[in-house]
């Protein structure tokens, strides 16, 4: 079945459809990791995005389930050069093509993914329509034009955050952490609980009262999809809590916390998505190779006097972390929990939890 | 390299820095260290340091006078290095770029107090780390201390200790000797007798007489990580690689894929984290290679080995990613941190960055078994390959097929090989016990319908790889049916097949227009998967995708490379290609290099304006030519590989610059060449081309034995033999490949005279011969295996003039425009021509270095249309140098179990060294020492066994050995002759006479040198055993009386002090630039 990815600037990339006829509209972005497709496809931060894999051989080790970061695939669509129909791995439970079909992820294969990456790099992030089958192909360009007019990132967080009011994780005797779920990855819960933390997960729209009612030792703001300025209520809630609780933010959490402290955020030309971003820890003068997945960034120049930049990206000098000079408030833009990606910065969670123990 | 606005570290004042190279090419240590060394020297010079380089290998780029400020082509021994250090007084030594040889020497210099005595600082990774990584016991302890898993093992210094460990843990076990190259002497053993045999050989091969015996990880996945660390503890992974061959086959002999394909992200990161733990614990500063075994069925791994230096794998990783590990390692050794160094590929990011790939890379080993029919072809922990080909493709299949084609074995498809004729049982045998043909056996088994699960069970190869190969096999079968669709043909293009291969499968002539071929597109290797724009001009080919070629602003010229290193076509051709690229650049052209050898300097994107990393095949060269709008392609620098493309390229309308296809064809066409020689009045050994073995016999009878037979169009004398009688001819016919009409068998009268060799440049009018080489061994031993001397020692001026005249006449007749190499034999005062090659040769770098005349530059300019008289290289026969240069071949027999070591017309050496001295004797002495021959000291014992034909000739030489105070031990026949000549000797039994016999002496280490030249078939088995025993015992074994005579000359002489190339009074330096 024919398939095409149309970009809003008129360029198109032809390939072959995987699975059923479908049409997906979303922001076209690229992920540069050479492994970790299962984690990426289930990463809530990719909600609403058509994910182009720059690595050309995807699916070699199948789907294990244990690598998943969410209960389902979160991407709007996938673009792959060559997909493995005969994977091999001791942990695999399913091959990638059938899983993508089961998850109803519109997928195009056989695409010149490098040419697409160059287009996204040069144009910047752009809306795309992924059309599978004749019917979708016929309507895709019109639907894309409509979407460009009405484009919004609103509702992305709501689409991936947990539905229930709260869930509890971990039975350790470490600190009790409330995790504000904007689209949390399972790896964060895995890492925090493995370090002994008891974690209560509340939805991103929980109020300060609801959070404090859990009597937590600290608050953790999760990663998630979209533009942080879409969540003014959450930002206001955080503002109210700055003086009450130790707070740590990751990725979207980092951006929300920065906004709550008075800094500004902006949209990156084409984002950071992959597992090879060099981040320099300005105190330790050390470089971590880190996992990233974000289209927005904190504007380091707008950090208020009370915030101190702690980390920067060596590729483009974007802000990668800050801490409050007076309060136990800190955040990082990258993903210490990796999954997918390198574990260089994994110690950050342990170090943060250790400060909580001292405080208690 | 640009650095990011940082102050130089405090300890980085401009200094004099010593770099040690890796010496001659041997199995396990090849051109990768030339690549690393050149990068290191350049990086040091960029920083303004003065570089002193020591390397005995003359075929390298790193020993070019322009690469370092002082280049010492001197033996790599402690005394030699100490003399150089005393002379140069360097401030610091960079030890980690010269392979294991350089590393071991640095440790010896340190431990011997030399570095302290001369206050030489060791840069980079500390000595303690170097010794720890090599000392198995300490390494194991260090790994256990940081919680990293290593296989259960025991370190032994005697065989019995290994056996008692085996009784505890069972078999199979792996034996790994400490401090050796390429796994010499190691292996997998399945029972006690194998353990005893391998362990005893391994202990002998170990400098510290120590070996590790460990539980086998056979069948586990083998994965490597290339890691960099700086002094601030920043660590990055440049690349990981996964071997298709599971643990059990040396990684140098394995098919290696980058990045890993079957590892989940969790596994990838688990091993990445472990790599960083290890490199931090070891405090490595610079590059490091870590080898892992990963369990195929659970999340469990073991660290197999750590190399705290640049290596073959780091060269591969550099070429696979574009990240120049050796260069960055050098900067780190100087004190920079990764974040202070700019990524030279993107020009915008820093070196503190991990490359990510959007293509797949496959490395395929190139084995020398085509030249060694008696060799043990089984693969194990002892490396046996001489070189490698790398393929880059958008998919694994494309990369695989490019690597297979790039081996230059004439295999265009998976079925295009002898394995197709094997029985099912033979296939199965190779699946279980791997040989060099296993990959092809897998494909053949799949073709015969064997299922993937069964193959995976037999071979332990992960089913992922098998499925990928199965798809290729199915595609080939579809193309063969004649029902192939245009989509199938396009798929074949995208899977890395050549036009020739596709036509072959379809049973069509190659030149048929293939409309359905997918269009070629050049893609960049950019370290960043297109996330950042790259500025490095490093490309590979993909089909049916967007083209990214940036056509260079200057007019382009394509230089075709020589592919993987093999016996007969080594690093010398890479030297020529690099110099051609540099000469083009100097002449105002944009050099475009097409080559696929990941080890070499020519595939460094710094060398050319456009690097196309592809097999040097017709499709790829044509695509390069068309895409860059090149003026033409140069074939004569890339050895026979490139020359063989002439017809195909000319047929496709590709312009060949320099000697054209007619010159190239005529040199090989016996009939035409003979006619030309007759016209010119030049003699050659009488001979004819035979199209059948029966015809060959007739020719031999007519000429009279002995005759020299060889197939035409081959390299390095493959299949060449001196035949003394009809019986030998019959057995040759049995073992030789069938004669094909387009490549007849050449049968020549064998003349046992003095062999001389010239390399010349001809411009259509003038000829330039920098110098004439004279061989020590008489004709009959391949020129690559002969010791050769410049300037000539025994030829008079009239003969030299004759050589000049004949060379010019032949060059004119062949319409040479550029290089020509001619081998002559002088027999009873007459000059005969043996062969003429219209291309670069093994001796080009040597004569260029010995005379200071850049022969390749001259040839390149001439090929572009310039005249020698307008160029600064001179014309005619250059004046002789006032010093002597001796090239001594180096063999890798210790790595090649079972190989016959006697020299003959078929080439066997893997590398060479140079000795330079004021006198012939001194140069010989340095040459022998450099070649690793332990010169026997007074009182040494020499085992002599001379063939009947040469017994009398041997007497004067033997007398000289006796006069030096050596004890001669002779087999009965030889002893009789010595006695009659009044030379004292001890008797020793031949093998059949019973113990104690010659082998007992060798095994008991009671011999310091062996001279054994008996090649007659009748004696072959006994003498073969003696020679092999010498190799196993590590005793030098000379198989030609001429070599023995040269050695005694060297022993009688004293060598002068070391002297850098730049200080010799070279003929070329006298030549003034015109105007």
Q: What is the share of helical residues of chain A?
A: 25-40%
**How many strand units of chain B?**
41
- Overall geometry of chain B comes to globular
Mean of pLDDT of chain A: 95
Average predicted local confidence, pLDDT of chain B: 91
CATH topology of the domain at 893-917 and 919-1052 in chain B: Rossmann fold
Secondary structure tally: strands of chain A: 19
Architecture per CATH nomenclature, i.e. the level-2 architecture of the domain at 893-917 and 919-1052 in chain B:
3-Layer(aba) Sandwich
Radius of gyration of chain B: 28 Å
Describe the largest sheet of chain A: 10 strands, mixed
Taking pLDDT < 50 over at least 5 consecutive residues as the criterion, the unreliable ranges of chain A are: none
The H/E string of chain A reads EEEHEEEEHEHEHHEEHEHEHEHEEEEEH
Number of H- or I-type helical stretches of chain A: 10
Biggest sheet of chain B: strands, sense, closure? 9 strands, mixed
CATH superfamily of the largest domain in chain A: Class I glutamine amidotransferase (GATase) domain
Give the fraction of residues assigned to helices of chain B. 25-40%
Compute the CA-based radius of gyration of chain A: 20 Å
Could you characterize what this model shows?
- The complex is a heterodimer of chains A (360) and B (1075).
- Chain A has 360 residues and is of the alpha/beta class.
- Chain A is built from 10 helices and 19 strands.
- Chain A folds into 2 domains: 150 residues, Glucose Oxidase, domain 1 (3-Layer(bba) Sandwich), CATH 3.50.30.20; 201 residues, 3-Layer(aba) Sandwich (Rossmann fold).
- Chain A is globular and about 60 Å long.
- Among the domains of chain B are: 112 residues, Rossmann fold; 65 residues, 2-Layer Sandwich (Dna Ligase, domain 1), CATH 3.30.1490; 146 residues, Carbamoyl-phosphate synthetase, large subunit oligomerisation domain (Carbamoyl Phosphate Synthetase, Chain A, domain 4, Orthogonal Bundle); 138 residues, Rossmann fold; 159 residues, Methylglyoxal synthase-like domain (Rossmann fold, 3-Layer(aba) Sandwich), CATH 3.40.50.
- Chain B is built from 36 helices and 41 strands.
- In chain B, α14 crosses α16, α30 packs across α35 and α31 packs parallel to α35.
- Chain B starts with 15 loop residues before the first strand and ends in a 5-residue tail after the last helix.
- The model of chain B has no long low-confidence stretch (mean pLDDT 91).
- Chains A and B meet through α3, β15 and β16 of A and α9 and α16 of B.
